[in-house]
Specification:
The structure is a single chain. The chain is an alpha/beta fold. It has 15 helices and five strands. Strand 4, helix 12 and strand 5 form a beta-alpha-beta unit. The longest helix is centred in the C-terminal third of the chain and has 25 residues. The chain is globular and about 65 Å long.
Length: about 375
Amino acid sequence: MRDGSLNLDDFTDLIERPHSGLRRDAEDRRARTGLPPQALGRLDELGEWLAAAQGAVPVRPVRRPKVLLFAGDHGVAELGVSARPAGSAATLVRAALDGESPGAVLARSMDVPLRIVDMALDCDPAELPAEVTRHRVRRSSGRLDIEDTLTAEEAEQAFRAGVAIADEEADEGTDLVVLGDLSVGGTTAAGTLTAALCGTDASVVTGRGGGGIDDLAWMRKCAAIRDGLRRAREALGDQLRLLGAVGGADLTATTGFLLQSAVRRTPVILDGVVSAACALVAQRVAFRAPDWWLAGQASGEPAQAKALDRMALEPLTDHGVTAGEATGALLALPLVRAAAVLAAELPEREAADAAGTADATDRAPAAGEGSG
């Protein structure tokens, strides 16, 4: 974005890959620890990725992570595509704010701050803290099967909000974001985006969602995605228009956040199908952006698997967590932190051995000394 104008093509130039030279330096340092190759498995790969992302060898420990959840209701939930009632995402937000949801409990146990951003909750904004609602674009998003979820102006506003939040986090020193969502109907929007970008049929990407819907609800969800897909295909050449057509305010903001986080060189752990779908849209905008993201988990949702495969992102864990709100991604955070600590603190044995040999030489008596 230049001169205040919103041009998504700018992100292609603004986003650079993590420092490949430092990744090689991290590999060389790891080789000097004396541990056998592959002894630490994927932790080695994570440590090298962090070195490249941080631009530092040895790697710095992950000290200031944050859980970030974009929240919103989706009009398509009126069709009975979710296990939760339409317009009820605010109850999920309140539970998270009260520390009573799975993601909030895990974040608290790991001493990780939790931030929630309301983009389109279907409630009176006065019911929630001003810090949560200050970026809201509208009250619920439109029904993606029959209408655009956002106007062009609302789509730009939501996208800009995501960009602004990425800048806020980078400026505050957040060194890793654990990204998730709090939504009702969001997985239907995510499935529609994924099907459109991967060129697949609705049935291929339709999952059971976080609430585990029954067969009838699954069929309604599949039909909604199919109808939304017809509309989405008309917008494939314009990613912001695509998000406005079927994504809703929360997914549009998430996409803007992911792209600007890559610009600001802030690593992100993706959670489930919603964040994966937004990442897939962001990849279409800037092909280097996925180099800044990790897939925290395999949720079992087919749209997530499709999106991650398209971006060549391999999940760090496979526990089938569909609770949303970054729960699955939080389970991957200890792995990332462990990789950082090992990469930072394992000593380089060759150097240590050389120093030990020199010390021993300094301490050894000269010929003839100590005999009298």
